[in-house]
Design a protein that fits this description.
This protein is of the alpha+beta class. It has 2 domains: 19-84, SH3 type barrels, CATH 2.30.30; 87-153, no CATH class. Helices cover 20% and strands 40% of the residues. It has helices at 93-101, 108-130, and strands spanning 19-23, 32-35, 38-47, 57-64, 70-76, 80-84, 86-92, 135-142, 145-153. The strands form 3 sheets. It has a 4-stranded antiparallel β-sheet, with no helix packed on it. Strands 7-8-9 form a 3-stranded antiparallel β-sheet. A hairpin with a 5-residue loop joins strand 4 and strand 5 (70-76). The N and C termini lie far apart (60 Å). Keywords: Hypusine, Membrane, Protein biosynthesis, Transmembrane, Transmembrane helix. InterPro entries: IF5A-like (IPR001884), IF5A-like_N (IPR048670), IF5A_C (IPR020189), NA-bd_OB-fold (IPR012340), Rib_uL2_dom2 (IPR014722), Trans_elong_IF5A_hypusine_site (IPR019769), Translation_prot_SH3-like_sf (IPR008991). Pfam families: eIF-5a, IF5A-like_N.
């Protein structure tokens, strides 16, 4: 076309949705739902009968999977709710240390989550390495947020 230079801003996002719709009446306890734009795990579901306004209602009580806050929502059972795409990864402790060394390639919030985990699990990590255990951390990701949620011993195979 022309000799103009075009600048493209690179983003590592394929444009896929972070949520998918699911009928409220089909969401059960221990399932996942988005309440107030936060990914949550459902801890209680109650359904009311059809009433004066014609729809059965689902009352959801859920816990935010990242900050642990309790959230509630009431939705007609025939309507759709957003459910978050949830991803889990298991990384060896060695990989986490390498990520610390390569700070330029790791998002800042990831590093703060890793440092919080090491602060809380410091004794378990030291004891595990002292006993020769193979340790991995489980990382949970949903709706653009990541969090390290546990330390596990995978042991010998």
């Amino acid at each position: 076309m022309s000799d103009e230079e075009h600048q493209f801003e690179s983003k590592a996002d394929a444009g896929a949705s972070k949520t998918y719709p699911q009928q409220a009446g089909t969401i059960r306890k221990n399932g996942y739902i988005v309440i107030k734009n936060r990914p949550c795990k459902v801890v209680e579901v109650s359904t009311s009968k059809t009433g004066k306004h014609g729809h059965a209602k689902c009352h959801f009580v859920a816990i935010d999977i990242f900050n642990g806050k309790k959230l509630e929502d009431i939705v007609p059972s025939s309507h759709n709710c957003d459910v978050s795409q949830l991803f889990m990864a298991f990384l060896p402790i060695f990989t986490i240390f390498v990520l610390f060394l390569l700070k330029s390639t790791v998002p800042a919030n990831w590093l703060s989550n890793v440092s919080k985990l090491f602060f809380h699990l410091d004794c378990q990590i030291k004891d595990g390495f002292g006993e020769g255990k193979d340790l991995v951390v489980s990382v949970m990701a949903a709706m653009g947020e990541e969090q390290i949620c546990a330390l596990k011993d995978v042991g010998p195979k």
